[in-house]
Design brief:
The protein has 395 residues and is an alpha/beta fold. Helices cover 41% and strands 9% of the residues. The relative contact order is 0.19.
């Protein structure tokens, strides 16, 4: 099953995976702090890519880059040939169980629309009421207007069934969101660097971990970096996911400079020939200017290693926040040039329609949606399935 735009990759030679780390640079040249080697979890499967023996050390840093990394301290947040690139693959079929969980999860959103569907005659009063309900369900005024226009054109002053109205809603949402249905393509030059951003509690770390598992299952050699250095639970959580994935895991001491860790992670990806480097970041409120500036610093430092990096900036949105997702997306797009979206926690929310607003306003690719904590509860976004579940139809 292909999720990320590349085919099954061959395992890298043993010598390359376990090559010794480069000599430690002078203390004044390296980012502060040493990378912590991965600790194997007793129950974890044998890793597909492991750390070199002994601690991983940072590569020497040019003087102009060392000054960027040094900063004034960190703010506490709230030679194997490359395979030929392939065109991005369409999103794979989802497990049957996920369809049911998606429909169940969005049932609160679709239930908000049920009141008006009892009317048999689609008169102006019914249309106005339906439009209000669509907007209240966080679908947004543009989508609501499209649904009303379609129904008024085709069924005005005629008897209409519940199923016909739901189908019209599903059709409009599908048409609106299909252009933004996109796999997460990491088929470009290796290592592909992915930076995960979002507010506190959005599910960034869990999403990163699940994607690491899915990537390694497809044969990718993955490095994960625990950039939420102020939150010990996030570091531990990502290490558990990394062990499960068999991914190389990098971390730093509590409160260390996240930009320095990001720099080292990209350097390590280049040194080991990794396919992807997945970097976690601290959750930050979109209205905290100093924390958003720290995120910009991470981006600048990464680009010093690879001017094309990060290749993907993935915004993780919490499906329960409703229209507040708009302001979050605006802030992170300005600070980090977001390239794609993952929406989590769609299980049991009445605000799932907010994803439609985000798609319409920002025209960003939507890569995945999540309906729970399980490994298989994160699946590729398929517009038709989402639309039918949101409208209360079977998927």
């Amino acid at each position: 099953m292909n999720w990320f735009g590349f085919g099954k990759k061959k395992n890298k030679p043993e010598a390359e995976t376990h090559s010794p780390a480069s000599a430690s640079p002078p203390a004044d040249d390296a980012p502060a702090g040493a990378l912590a080697p991965e600790e194997s979890a007793p129950a974890a499967p044998a890793p597909a890519a492991s750390l070199p023996a002994g601690p991983v050390t940072a590569a020497p840093v040019p003087a102009d880059e060392a000054s960027e990394l040094a900063g004034a301290g960190t703010l506490a947040p709230e030679t194997e040939a490359e395979p030929e690139p392939q065109k991005p693959a369409p999103a794979p079929a989802k497990p049957e169980g996920f369809f049911k969980r998606l429909a169940t999860g969005l049932s609160k959103s679709s239930a908000q629309l049920s009141g008006v569907f009892t009317k048999r005659k689609l008169d102006r009063e019914a249309l106005d009421e339906l439009e209000e309900l669509l907007i209240a369900a966080d679908l947004g005024a543009p989508t609501a207007a499209k649904v009303i226009d379609r129904l008024a054109r085709d069924r005005f002053d005629k008897d209409v069934t519940d199923a016909e109205i739901r189908q019209a809603l599903a059709d409009v949402i599908t048409e609106t969101m299909e252009p933004f249905q996109a796999p997460l393509d990491i088929s470009g030059p290796a290592p592909q660097v992915l930076l995960f951003v979002g507010v506190n509690g959005s599910g960034k770390t869990t999403t990163l971990g699940k994607l690491a598992v899915k990537m390694t299952r497809e044969g990718a050699n993955v490095i994960t970096a625990a950039g939420d250095t102020f939150r010990a639970a996030a570091v531990e959580q990502l290490q558990v996911w990394s062990n499960r994935a068999g991914a190389q895991f990098l971390s730093r001491p509590h409160g260390a400079d996240a930009a320095g860790l990001a720099y080292d992670a990209v350097q390590e990806g280049r040194r080991t020939g990794a396919d992807a480097v997945l970097i976690d970041t601290a959750g930050r409120l979109q209205n905290k200017a100093e924390l958003m500036e720290e995120l910009r610093k991470i981006l600048r430092v990464i680009s010093k290693v690879d001017e094309a990096a990060p290749h993907h900036v993935v915004l993780v949105l919490d499906g329960t926040v409703g229209s507040n997702a708009i302001s979050q997306a605006e802030a992170f797009m300005e600070a980090a040039k977001v390239t794609g979206i993952v929406m989590t926690k769609l299980d049991g929310t009445a605000k799932g329609g907010a994803l439609v607003q985000v798609a319409e306003k920002f025209a960003l690719p939507i890569h995945f949606i999540g309906v729970g904590e399980g490994e298989d509860d994160l699946q590729p976004f398929i517009a038709r399935d989402f639309a039918r579940a949101l409208a209360g139809l079977g998927v």
